[in-house]
Structure formats: C-alpha cells, structure tokens
Design brief:
The protein has about 325 residues and is an all-alpha fold. Helices cover about 75% and strands about 0% of the residues. It is built from twelve helices and two strands. The protein is extended and about 90 Å long.
Length: about 325
C-alpha cells in the first residue's frame, strides 16, 4: 500500500535524503583521505628509513627466532639467578653473578631487585605528583578561583610540566645529575604533576557547589570551603586517577631505565644489545607479570575506594 506524503512530508523526505547523501560523501571522502595520508606516510617512512622498511619487512620475525634460548629452563634460571649447565665463563650465562645478597645465604635475584627499583621509582614519582597536583588543581578550577590570571598561570604551568615526555625530561636530568634513579624520579614526577593536575581540576569543576555555598553562608574561608565542601566529593576520583597514573609510571620508569635511569629497563637494554636470549625473555616475563599485578592491585584498590556499587552494573545481580 503506497502512502502519499503531504508537501511538508515531501520536503522533510528530500531534506533527509540530502543529509544522508552528504554524510555518505563525507564518509567516503574521509576514508579516501585517510588512505592517501597513510600511504604517503608509509612511503615517506620507507624512504627515510636507513634499512628500507619494505625490504626488511620479511625479516621482522628473525628477531623472535634470535630470542629463542637453547633450553626453556634457562629463562627460569636467568630469572632466579640459578647456575646454568651451559656456563662457559661468558656474560651470557653468568646468572649467579647478579645476586643481591641480604645475608650470607639469602639473596634477591638481580632482575627482581631491579624490578623493585623500577616500582619504587614509579611509586615515589606518583606520590610526589599526586601531592603537588592536588595542591595546584584547586587554584586552576574556575568554580573556586575567580581570578582569571591565577587560573591562567596555574593551567599554563601544568601544561608546561606535561608538554615534554618523561624520557626527554630524564635526558636533561641525566646530563646534569649523572645516571641513576634520582633523575628518573624527577622526570616522572614532573610529568605526573602536570597530568594529574589537569585531571584533578576537571573533576573539581564538575563538583556539586551546594556544600560550598552552605559553608560560605556559614562564614567559612576559602581553604575551609575547599577542604570540607569539595575534597570529600572529589577524593574517590582523585585516588582512582592516582592509581591509574601509578600503572603508567611503572611503564615510564622502565623506558627511562633503558637510557640510564636505573631499574629493570637498563638491564633489558643490555640483554637485548648483547643478544642474551634467556635474560631478555626472563626480563620480559617479569615485566609482564609486574604490569598485570599492578593493574589488578590498582583495580582492587579502586573498587575498595570508590565502592562496590560503582562496579555492580552489568553483573546481572
């Protein structure tokens, strides 16, 4: 059965078809633009690459083949600093040499000790970044600070802190303070202040201002209004962002370690450059287990801090 549309209905139908045609045109144009841009980028990268990307692409799995140890148990021997039956006096199988002795017999395996150092860098950096970001975020929130020049200055300051990647900041401190964990802590802390400060003040700007109005009516000053009216609302989100940043900082500390910032990244770079298969796989396994552990711990802590009810949706309860 055919339906006859009125003049208004026909006009609406024509307008809808025009919008649909325009949307299809934009979609096709966007896809073509992405294809052209990606092709041009790949061509430029291939021409700029010293080893010729397309020529070396078939050999990409050669590195995986080079990582295969002669014995699967070598990975565990390297991880726990156990003697290797293939020891020949070279650095490739000198696993017990890296032990960190706590007593005459009790020791911590080298890679586990280095991983603890990396976690320590990430933890200290996160605490410092959380504390400073917490202090700065309230000065950057438009619902708490009326002075535009102050908000502008604090926001630009935090933008500068997070503008440079951690590895760039670490390179500067490594040149000044020499190699070690201190430059890594400074670099990760600086970037964390800028990153957490931005997320924090956005949370503050979304806070309910009714408690602030009540405290203001009762004669409370600005610090009291912030501490009693805003902080209780935003602290669960602050802690959740802080735990998320801890996960990110573990990865960042590993990367910085590869350029002299201490921790597990340094020994990983050395093992790869020396083609020590078992050591490289042991470090990669330890990194994977650590990241999974930190992720699960952070998820558990967030659930405890925010509350079980925030995670109840979708369980089918």
């Amino acid at each position: 059965m055919s339906v006859t549309l009125s003049d208004t209905g026909l006009a609406v139908e024509r307008h809808w078809q025009e919008l649909a045609s325009r949307r299809r045109l934009y979609t096709i144009g966007g896809v073509l633009f992405m294809i052209v841009a990606m092709s041009a980028s790949l061509w430029f990268a291939n021409e700029s690459n010293a080893g010729k990307f397309w020529d070396r692409l078939p050999h990409v799995f050669d590195f995986i083949d080079q990582l295969m140890p002669r014995d699967g148990w070598e990975v565990w021997r390297a991880l726990f600093d156990l003697p290797s039956p293939y020891a020949d006096g070279s650095l490739k199988y000198d696993y017990p040499e890296g032990r960190v002795y706590l007593t005459s017999t009790l020791y911590v395996p080298e890679y586990i000790y280095k991983m603890l150092e990396t976690i320590n860098i990430a933890l200290v950096s996160t605490l410092v970044g959380f504390a400073l970001g917490f202090c700065l975020c309230f000065l950057a929130a438009s619902n708490l600070v009326t002075q535009r020049w102050l908000r502008f200055f604090v926001r630009r300051f935090m933008e500068i802190l997070r503008a440079f990647p951690e590895i760039v900041i670490a390179g500067f401190f490594l040149a000044v303070l020499s190699i070690g964990p201190i430059p890594a802590i400074l670099a990760v802390s600086i970037h964390t202040v800028g990153a957490l400060g931005k997320m924090f003040f956005e949370v503050v700007e979304n806070a309910d201002m009714k408690p602030d109005e009540g405290l203001r009516a009762a004669g409370a000053n600005w610090p009291e209004r912030v501490w009693f009216g805003i902080v209780p609302q935003v602290m669960p989100n602050f802690l959740s962002y802080g735990l998320l940043r801890l996960e990110i900082n573990v990865r960042a500390s590993t990367i910085i370690g590869a350029v002299g910032g201490g921790g597990i990244g340094e020994v990983l770079r050395l093992s790869i450059s020396r083609t020590h298969e078992a050591k490289t796989l042991a470090i990669i396994l330890l990194l994977l287990l650590t990241i999974i552990g930190v992720d699960q711990l952070s998820a558990w802590l967030r659930k405890k801090l925010v509350g079980e009810q925030a995670f109840a949706f979708g369980r089918g309860d």
